[in-house]
Write a structure and sequence with these properties.
Shape: elongated
Number of domains: 1
Structural class: alpha+beta
Strand order of the largest sheet: 1-2-3-4-5
Radius of gyration: 24 Å
Number of strands: 5
Distance between the termini: 60 Å
Order of helices and strands: HEHEEEE
Low-confidence stretches: 23-28
Number of helices: 2
Length: 122
C-alpha cells in the first residue's frame, strides 16, 4: 500500500512540474538591429555624403513625443556593405529606450526599430 501512496505523490508532483514548469518559457530575446554594424569612427554627420542621414535622424527625433525628445545621444554606425545606422537613446519612465534607424548604401532609411534596452533606477 505504501508504494501506491508514493506513486500517487510522484504522479501529482510530475503533473505539477508539467503544468507550471513548462508553461513559462522565457521570452525570446529581440534580435539586435545593430548586428553586423560597428561604430563609425570617422563618421562626420555634417559632411555632404552623410547630410541625408544627419537630417533624417534629426527629423525622426522631431516626430517623437516631447518627453522622448530629451535624448541622451545619437551614435553612428556602419557595416562592411556600406550601410549606416543611427542609434538614438533616452530614458523615460525608468526605461532605457533605443531607436535604431537603418540606412541603405544610398543613405535612404529602410528600417526603424524601437525597443527597451534596459531599466534605470530613479
Amino acid at each position: 500500500m505504501k508504494t501506491s501512496r508514493y506513486y500517487k505523490c510522484f504522479v501529482v508532483a510530475l503533473l505539477f512540474a508539467l503544468a507550471f514548469g513548462f508553461g513559462c518559457y522565457p521570452s525570446k530575446p529581440t534580435p539586435d538591429p545593430l548586428d553586423g554594424f560597428h561604430v563609425a569612427g570617422k563618421f562626420d554627420p555634417d559632411s555632404n555624403s552623410n547630410k541625408a542621414i544627419n537630417e533624417d535622424s534629426k527629423n525622426y527625433i522631431q516626430t517623437l513625443s516631447p518627453k522622448e525628445r530629451d535624448i541622451a545621444g545619437r551614435e553612428f554606425f556602419e557595416d562592411d556593405n556600406g550601410r549606416h545606422a543611427v542609434k538614438i537613446s533616452y530614458t523615460l519612465n525608468d526605461n532605457n529606450w533605443e531607436h535604431v534607424l537603418i540606412y541603405d548604401k544610398n543613405n535612404h532609411r529602410i528600417k526603424a526599430v524601437k525597443y527597451v534596452s534596459g531599466h534605470s533606477m530613479s
